Amino acid sequence: MSQGLQSVIVIGATGHLGPSILTALASSSTQFTISILSRRTNPPLNLSPQIKIHAVDDTYPSHQLVSAFTGQDAIINLLPCYSVDNVPKIKSVIDAAVEAGVKRIIPGEFGCDTASPEVVDAIPVFEAKTKVIEYLRSKEKEGLSWTGVITGGFFDGVIKNTFHGFSIPARAATIYSGGDKPVSYTLLSTVGRAVAAVLAHPLETTNCYVYIHSVRCTQNDILAALETVTGEKWKRTERLAEEARRSGLQRMKRGDMSGMPDVIVGGMFMGVKEMDFAKRRELNMRILGLQEEENLKGLVEVLVKEAEDEGKA
Prior knowledge:
Blueprint: E1 7-11, H1 18-27, E2 33-39, E3 52-56, H2 62-69, E4 74-77, H3 87-100, E5 104-106, H4 117-122, H5 127-138, E6 145-150, E7 153-154, H6 155-160, E8 166-167, E9 172-176, E10 183-186, H7 188-200, E11 208-211, E12 215-217, H8 219-230, E13 235-239, H9 241-253, H10 260-268, H11 277-280, H12 296-312
Parallel strand pairs: 1-2, 1-4, 2-3, 4-5, 5-6, 6-11, 7-10, 9-13
Antiparallel strand pairs: 8-9, 10-12
Helix pairs in contact: 1-7, 2-3, 3-5, 8-12, 9-10
């Protein structure tokens, strides 16, 4: 596997992360041949004519997957993996990849450091991701390699959405357990470039996790930047991270998936030291040709403007 992985198929390309990955693949100096796997029931896709679409039935039949994967060097699998119920479908993708002779899978990690048992204990919805990696490890002897890309949260969403507690329209922030726990975040565009770089450096990224981030900061750091950029004092509401996690788990046990954000954000900020992976792990920024963002205020300013412009559309 001395050469780059050039023929790439993306599963889940129309989701939150997919467009950034497609953009990075298309603009990379490596001349990728890009395909996507799409369900036949999906609406028509407005994509570059250079991107081939492989349509499959909603049940992801094995023979259709094998046909779509034949001739592909790599699969980028962005299918949701926040429940063990999702694992059988992802295992079927892996099995088809082995049968088709695919060399590399990049599974749907793109978040907290699930290589850490302490992180998975804090955020149990990540257990499904660990089961996928276990299954991928079992396929290494059959010629299939993998790379898990650990990014922390997507910083675009931290600023633009309310998932992490910040609301630009309301000028309000929910701060968990004092807001002083540093964690890593990565821009969507940087995640896309990282994926392209992984495929261009197959030897250095074989059968391992790679760790990247754009910034490492606390909720208090983000709130201070938001107040500076907007020129306004924001309403600050305090919430215990442990309480948010407990409430979210209780709702999820009742089948209410709206509890998942509380489980994830509560788990992130409840003080588990392994959550701060940039302090414990060697970052892979240099080998992937990536750089950290040094100006948090400037980055927040750009994202706030984007969010406000998108709100006017």
